[in-house]
Design brief:
This protein has 17 helices and 13 strands. The chain is of the alpha/beta class. It folds into three domains: 47 residues, Transferase, Pyrimidine Nucleoside Phosphorylase, Chain A, domain 3, CATH 1.20.970.10; 252 residues, Pyrimidine Nucleoside Phosphorylase, Chain A, domain 2 (3-Layer(aba) Sandwich); 89 residues, Pyrimidine nucleoside phosphorylase-like, C-terminal domain (Aldehyde Oxidoreductase, domain 3, Alpha-Beta Complex). Bound molecules: uracil.
């Protein structure tokens, strides 16, 4: 196989064979194909697309390019969830213990914050002592004993995707649906669970800005999962505005605990119950209606909250913080952002709010930056809420006083007002099973 011929074939809209795809991915992982040739191939995919069969083969080739996790000990019970990333997305912290309390085995590898979006690993590290790097044996044994473990992604999981993703990032080839779908699903397949539930976010704070594209991506990922004999389902949810009220690591942990204690914002609870019931249905083999009942019961009975405390403790975290979130304390500096006029909140740009939270210290400016767990933003008002000029619409928290004015300007710019009443946006657009 000559890489030149594969580039030529794809450039003219041809379909690569399974052997050609596997051989290309194996050689690229071994550094036998230079980045400039792979870049040309990726660009050809951006213009010509791929058939479903090519996408399934590409996903499998990347998934098997490094370590794979063996979760066969859990039979059909192992389940994973993936979000395409958003602002204020703390759903894993709530969904994982709900599902574990209902009998599913949540074995999840998770990422760190990227750009304006937060990462579950960073959030969990707000608990003193919490350990996101478990050995494969510790990972499996924790899932066995408590039904949930959430760890950082193993360094050698889908290494072909790691190389390709870094290349796509610098060659303007990220936004191709076949490449995004195969990239995400290669990691999910390698991570080994029998069932996979995807939360495809759509709107100003998400990768996919429009609902049509989000649906195409979600359907494609579900087809990839099913073609590899994994039970796969997806929801498409609103990321035009941040999810819940809290953005920032410890702030989001506190809000997640609120939901687990039967309080918390309605939009967050709705998304969590939708995800949890799909995960319970797939992993425990229940009808959807029964799974929904089971998810709501574990939340209402306090079983999910108890499971959360057990999980944090088993993974080395100080669970007294889970029982008494006031122990997290508050950031040294805080500043309120005030409404500029009477009326209603029309919109709240999620990307800008995420970026403001990151510059306050909740995200990284460079790969080496450290996260400030107490930094972030609490939104007191969201679209459709009535406001009076001077009302507090958001509070900023930081340890870096000098960042407050930039963040305040960004939050102010992110909010749009209306004089007329504004209809509430739906939080769930679609469920795909
Ligand atoms: N997340 C991934 O893992 N891969 C992509 O291509 C896009 C988002």
């Amino acid at each position: 196989m000559r890489m030149y011929d594969l580039i030529e074939k794809k450039k003219h809209g041809g379909e690569l064979t399974r052997d050609e795809i596997f051989s290309m991915i194996t050689s690229y992982t071994k550094e036998e194909i230079p980045d400039y040739q792979m870049s040309a191939f990726l660009m050809a995919v951006c213009f010509q697309g791929m058939t479903d069969r090519e996408i399934f083969d590409l996903t499998e080739a990347m998934a098997t390019s490094g370590d794979t996790v063996d979760l066969s000990a859990f039979g059909d019970r192992s389940v994973d969830k993936h979000s395409t990333g958003g602002v204020g997305d703390k759903t894993t912290l709530i969904v994982a213990p709900i599902v574990a309390a209902a009998g599913g085995m949540v074995a999840k590898m998770t990422g760190r914050g990227l750009g304006h979006t937060g990462g579950t690993a960073d959030k969990l590290e707000s608990f003193p002592g919490f350990e996101v790097s478990l050995s494969p044996d510790q990972f499996v044994s924790q899932v066995q004993s408590c039904g949930v473990a959430v760890v950082g992604q193993s360094a050698d999981l889908a290494p072909a995707d790691k190389k390709l993703y870094a290349l796509r990032d610098v060659t303007a080839t990220v936004d191709s649906i076949p490449l995004i779908a195969s990239s995400i699903m290669s990691k999910k397949l390698a991570a080994g669970t029998r069932s996979i539930v995807l939360d495809v976010k759509c709107g100003s704070g998400a990768f996919m800005r429009d609902a049509e594209q989000a649906e195409i991506l979600a359907n494609m990922m579900v087809r990839i999962g099913e073609s590899h004999r994994r039970n796969t389902a997806a929801i498409i949810s609103n990321m035009d505005i941040p999810l819940g009220h809290a953005i920032g690591n410890a702030l989001e942990i506190k809000e997640a605990i609120d939901v687990l204690q039967g309080k918390g914002p309605e939009d967050l609870r709705t998304v969590c119950l939708a995800l949890a019931s799909l995960m319970i249905s797939l992993s425990c083999g229940l009808e959807q209606a029964e799974a929904e009942k089971r998810a709501a019961q574990t939340l209402e009975s306090g079983a999910a909250y108890e499971k959360f405390c057990q999980w944090i403790e088993l993974q080395g975290g100080d669970a007294t913080y889970a029982k008494n979130p006031a122990l997290f304390g508050d950031a040294k500096y805080r500043q309120d952002v005030l409404a500029a006029q009477d009326g209603y909140i029309l919109s709240c740009n999620a990307e800008m709010i995420g970026t403001a939270s990151a510059i306050l210290g909740a995200g990284r400016q460079t790969k080496e930056s450290t996260i400030d767990p107490l930094a972030g933003i609490v939104l007191h008002k969201k679209p459709s809420d009535a406001i009076k000029r001077g009302d507090v619409i958001a509070t900023l928290y930081t340890e870096r006083k000098e960042m407050l004015s930039d963040a305040e300007r960004m939050v102010t710019d992110a909010i749009r007002y209306s004089e007329a009443p504004v209809e509430k946006q739906p939080i769930l657009y679609k469920i795909i099973r």
